[in-house]
Write a structure and sequence with these properties.
The chain is α+β, with helices and mostly antiparallel strands. Helix content is 32%, strand content 28%. 46% of the residues are buried.
């Protein structure tokens, strides 16, 4: 089944149209990646040097979303303020145009992350109507989630074709993926990781949230970018990164947490807000929370 057919079968026409239009944007981004490498002299609102492709992908998606007339406002990792789109728009978008973009030079995984809301920002992640990511890898895949389920599509010459429907995390996980330096982890988190290693979980970490989470979605386990001694709120951005992925994992039967509660219930205070991020199988998240409380 093609993506457009699947969307129209399962969603209302406007949400289906928006996700389909985003999928076409992702196709073009994929084709442009080889030609837009290198760094600019600009920094994003987090003080990070932007890559040429970061800046281009951000502006490209914004301009294309404006054309749809469906989007009221947009929050992007690359923008200092909320971007006003169409006055008659009915959706509000969170955007990480190119997650893991530092991987481009070494030809490792990158992706695009999007959250879709009807409520105006600020809004907790629980209010998302849908979330999706595009993974640009050996195979190019799109995963979208609503409260009706999580579905994966493969980009082919005929378009995006359904390859997995109503995805659920495997009951027994296999992998753990952890960011940050071990020396900066809390003692509780070190204890948790040691326990996971003793149970035989394999470490896989590639520096792209999309790429690392995609492995957890397929094989089960846990992804963590924890609270660090020098960065108690971790590294990942609440609105543009953690909320969409947390929505997807919870619809797939897993859990998200900031170490205390679901990330989807975290209050959104600012565009710059970060959060410790743990997503994966429920049993692992529950064990983690108990260990961090000790």
């Amino acid at each position: 089944m093609l993506l457009k057919e699947h969307l129209l079968k399962n969603l209302d026409k406007k949400l289906a149209s928006l996700i389909f239009e985003i999928s076409k944007m992702c196709e073009l981004i994929r084709r442009e990646l080889p030609y837009r490498r290198g760094k600019t002299t600009m920094k994003n609102m987090f003080g990070e040097i932007q890559l040429v492709v970061d800046e281009w992908a951000n502006q490209f998606i914004i301009e294309e979303l404006k054309k749809t007339g469906l989007v009221k406002t947009l929050v992007s990792e690359e923008e200092a303020d909320i971007v006003k789109m169409s006055k008659n728009g009915i959706f509000n978008i969170s955007l990480d145009p190119l997650d893991g973009s530092s991987n481009i030079e070494s030809n490792n995984l990158v992706g695009t992350i999007i959250g879709i809301y009807k409520k105006d920002f600020p809004a907790p992640g629980r209010n998302q109507k849908a979330a999706l990511y595009m993974l640009y890898g050996p195979l190019d895949t799109l995963v979208y989630a609503t409260k009706k389920g999580v579905h994966e599509f493969l980009l082919t010459n005929e378009g995006f074709i359904l390859i997995r429907e109503n995805i659920k995390l495997p009951t027994k996980g296999k992998l753990y993926s952890v960011g940050g330096l071990r020396k900066d982890w809390s003692s509780g988190f070190k204890e948790f990781v040691e326990g996971v290693e003793e149970k035989g979980y394999k470490l896989r970490y590639g520096g792209s949230f999309v790429g690392d989470f995609n492995q957890i979605l397929h094989y089960g386990g846990i992804f963590a970018y924890p609270s660090l001694v020098n960065k108690p709120e971790g590294k990942l951005r609440l609105v543009s990164e953690s909320n969409p992925i947390s929505f997807i994992v919870e619809q797939a039967g897993g859990r998200s947490s900031n170490g205390k509660k679901s990330i989807l219930d975290r209050e959104y205070k600012s565009l710059q807000q970060r959060t410790p991020t743990y997503v994966g199988n429920k049993d692992l998240i529950e064990t983690l929370e108990k260990t961090l409380k000790q």
